[in-house]
Specification:
By secondary structure, this protein is of the alpha+beta class. It contains 21 helices and 17 strands. The strands form five sheets. Strands 1, 2, 3, 4, 5, 6, 9, 14 and 15 form a nine-stranded mixed β-sheet that branches. Strands 7-8 form a two-stranded antiparallel sheet. A two-stranded antiparallel ribbon has the order 10-11. Helix 7 runs parallel beside helix 14 and helix 17 runs antiparallel to helix 18. Bound molecules: adenosine-5'-diphosphate and magnesium ion (5 copies). It is an enzyme of class 6 (ligase). Pathway: Sulfur metabolism; glutathione biosynthesis; glutathione from L-cysteine and L-glutamate: step 1/2. GO terms for molecular function: ATP binding; glutamate-cysteine ligase activity.
């Protein structure tokens, strides 16, 4: 959600008056970071994941499930609980999210270089849910913490516990169905971000998602709630608030590189993998209670978080600040930056004059095209040059599929990091661990075998769009490079190989096979994860999105009208709870021999 600093957030008009000054502070801080940290060498390969988790309450009598607005009560208790845990490997860092029904959990200590750490990810993720579940259970046996990428009827009817009021008087963004009371009261930043986005944009957020047309879906489909709204398109599901996007949950992984150059190289090689992993992670087929024709959340948050003015929306290549990664960073890959995204020329020239490489200066120049949407008053004018608040703040308010995280000025232990951000959260801890470990293995594979997957940005973006389509893992082809060839390949070829390309999973197996320091237990775990990725790409396992879709389509009360009723949602989320807590098996989304694996890790 962005940098969390205590204090009073400025109003948009106050930020607007100070924009020039803030930009100067930010650029100067970036230059200072660069000079201080450009020669760091041999930083450890540390890494960590972030999972966003959803709180829900079941009402078994009425066959209902609602979002539980309780994060603000749980977070202080969780903080206290973890302060008392001595063993740092068992501690969790909990972060507030924009919505009060979401919490973010992160391992307290990042994982380290040891391959055996691949074996601790899933247990750590399970521990996170267990910590929260235990607190919830003290109050009620109907409350649960689950991995839900987009709550099916988020924005439809009355969908929270406790009940809240809906409609424009209850929303700073004038939303009809996403009131301000959804937002986390724990940090003033949240409300400020929502208000300032709305004011800068000068109008309501407008998200249109193509509906899945079933045999009894009205044609054209028109959402009654928005029948007088000119922003609404026929045959589309409509969302009208930034909160529609911030309520979605994702899985992110951050990797520290050994050096500044290493971080740019890693970023450039992870860039083309973003749409591939988005496609494999797809988990969002339902929006506001309707089955849609998309499977992932990315483009939906992109539209919801869009702060561009009407004029900016007309400018070519001026995309939402929540969007695909616009540039490769190394000069070597500059020729693949084939889309002309706007940059702040003055900033680019200043950075180049300070010795920052040209292509990287363009990346930063593009960051500085954006206005900082949140500024905490106490940090507006730096008292000294001991921290890099303005740069960090801006960097954390631009949400691309990758984020280069330079070392903060006030933390000498932190190196250059790359954050991998495209993936939807998976229903099970196993699924989240599998994708996390797979991406971590890809970073090792790329560096060890010196692979080059880079393709033009325009093709990466086309892949991003294809990844969103219903059942893209089985239906779509993606641009992919191997050697000197770029061709369109299906997911099965990219992951499992073809005559010309060994495939990402076989490459990962080769890497694991060649490392002598991996113990048998870790090998077994990693192989289960590789099997999940491999089978999903081959189509023998379903993505979460396909499984959810199929659950709705085959529900006895579904009427072929694209509508996901309260009852269907109840049964679906109940099923997700049973599966993710190990009470029920689900062979369509994970391989059946998982029981052995779970036993191995019972601690
Ligand atoms: P943000 O929300 O800005 O992305 P978080 O603090 O929520 O940041 O998450 C940061 C992630 O980076 C966590 O997964 C954490 O484990 C990981 N991390 C923290 N320090 C390091 C480090 N030195 N090297 C690599 N990863 C790190
Ligand atoms: Mg988050
Ligand atoms: Mg954050
Ligand atoms: Mg975070
Ligand atoms: Mg989020
Ligand atoms: Mg993050």
């Amino acid at each position: 959600m962005g940098l969390l600093s205590e204090g009073r957030p400025l109003k948009w008009t106050e930020i607007k008056d100070a924009l020039k000054q803030i930009r100067t502070y930010g650029v100067d801080q970036l230059i200072q970071v660069y000079h201080k940290c450009k020669n760091r060498q041999r930083d450890a390969f540390t890494w960590g994941d972030e999972v966003e988790l959803t709180l829900v309450r079941f009402d078994h009598e009425n066959k209902k499930v609602q979002l539980l607005l309780k994060a603000h009560k749980l977070l202080p208790a969780l903080r206290k609980l973890n302060e008392e845990i001595q063993d740092e490997a068992c501690r969790i860092a909990w972060h507030p999210e924009a919505c009060d029904f979401v919490v973010e959990g992160v391992p307290f200590q990042p994982y380290g270089f040891l391959p055996s750490h691949f074996n601790t990810v899933e247990a750590n993720m399970r521990l996170r849910r267990e910590q929260v579940q235990k607190l919830l259970a003290e109050q009620s046996d109907c409350d649960f913490i689950l991995n839900i990428a987009a709550f099916p009827r988020y924005g439809q009817g009355a969908y929270t516990h406790p009940a809240v009021e809906y409609g424009p008087p209850h929303s700073a963004e004038e939303s009809l169905c996403f009131p301000d009371s959804l937002l986390s009261p724990i940090h003033p930043r949240t409300k400020s971000l929502s208000e300032n986005t709305h004011e800068r944009r000068q109008g309501k957020a407008s998200v249109n998602i193509p509906i899945f047309k079933d045999s009894s879906t009205p044609s054209p489909f028109r959402d009654d709630l928005f029948k007088d709204d000119p922003n609404v398109k026929d045959d589309h599901i409509h969302l009208d608030s930034t909160a529609a996007g911030w309520g979605c949950c994702c899985l992110q992984v951050t990797f520290q590189a050994e050096s500044f150059e290493g971080s740019l190289h890693l970023y450039d090689q992870l860039l083309p993998l973003c749409p591939i992993m988005l496609c494999l992670s797809a988990a969002c087929p339902i929006w506001r209670g309707y089955l849609s024709d998309v499977d992932c959340r990315w483009n939906i948050i992109s539209a919801a978080a869009d702060d561009r003015t009407a004029v900016e929306r007309q400018q070519e290549n001026m995309l939402s600040r929540y969007g695909p990664t616009p540039f490769y960073l190394t000069d070597e890959k500059k020729h693949l930056n084939d889309l002309d995204f706007p940059v702040c020329d003055e900033v680019v020239q200043k950075l180049i004059s300070q010795g920052i490489p040209e292509t990287l200066s363009h990346h930063f120049g593009h960051l500085f095209v954006r206005d900082p949407l949140v500024i905490i008053e106490e940090f507006l004018h730096p008292k000294d040059d001991s921290n890099s608040y303005h740069f960090e703040n801006l960097n954390s308010l631009v949400w691309n599929t990758l984020r280069l995280k330079p070392p903060p000025l006030d933390d000498d232990l932190m190196g250059w990091r790359v954050e991998f951000r495209p993936m939807d959260i998976q229903m099970t801890d196993f699924g989240n661990a599998a994708l996390t470990v797979f991406v971590a293995l890809m970073t090792r594979v790329i560096l060890t075998y010196n692979l080059d997957f880079a393709i033009p940005i325009s093709q990466v973006n086309e892949n991003m769009n294809r990844a969103h389509h219903r059942d893209s893992a089985r239906q779509k082809k993606f641009y992919f490079r191997f050697g000197n060839e770029i061709s369109e390949m299906c997911m099965n070829e990219i992951i499992n190989g073809n005559n010309n390309f060994p495939g990402l999973v076989p490459l990962a197996r080769q890497y694991v096979g060649e490392r002598e320091d991996i113990d048998a237990d870790t090998r077994f775990t990693v192989e289960q994860y590789l099997l999940l990725v491999s089978k999903r790409a081959a189509g023998t396992l379903m993505t979460n999105a396909s499984w959810i879709r199929q659950f709705v389509l085959s529900h006895p009360s579904y009427k072929q009208d694209s509508i996901v009723t309260e009852e269907i949602q109840y049964d679906l989320v109940r099923k997700m709870e049973q599966i993710s807590n190990g009470h029920e098996d689900c062979p369509q989304i994970r391989q059946p021999n998982m029981e052995t694996h779970t036993d191995l890790h019972a601690e």
